[in-house]
Amino acid sequence: MIDMKLTKEEKKDRNGSLPVDTAKDTGPEYPYGLVINLDKESLKKLKVKTDDYNTGEYMSIKAKVKVVGISSRTSFGNGGDYETMELQITEMELEK
User: Fold this and answer.
1) At a CB cut-off of 8 Å and minimum separation 6, what does 12 contact?
2) What is the C-alpha to C-alpha distance for residues 89 and 67, in angstroms, rounded to an integer?
3) pLDDT tens-digit map of 17-48
4) Model-wide pTM > 0.85
5) CB within 10 Å: which end of the chain, N or C, has fewer?
6) HEC profile for the chain?
């Protein structure tokens, strides 16, 4: 598996010219869009009880996704290239 955690350089790129002190940085450790929020109905379908878990605990996820959007563009100047892919989770399971 690939570790998706932002490197110091990636954090600097996202914050522009602001210096990033990772010892004091309270910003996100991972890129926007890599968080999955499960509502009450989704948790029920997955047979997940939140009382059985703790914040900071690791789980495994297995999912089937459908590509629902692809976008790319090139910006003039220092904007650089931009690419995204939207994925819709259609099936999933969680393991402790």
Assistant:
1) 18, 19, 20
2) 9
3) 555 555 566 678 999 889 999 999 999 999 99
4) no
5) N
6) CCCCCCCHHHHHHHCCCCCCCCCCCCCCCCCCCCCCCCCHHHHHHCCCCHHHCCCCCCCEEEEEEEEEEEEEEEECHHHEEEEEEEEEEEEEEEEC
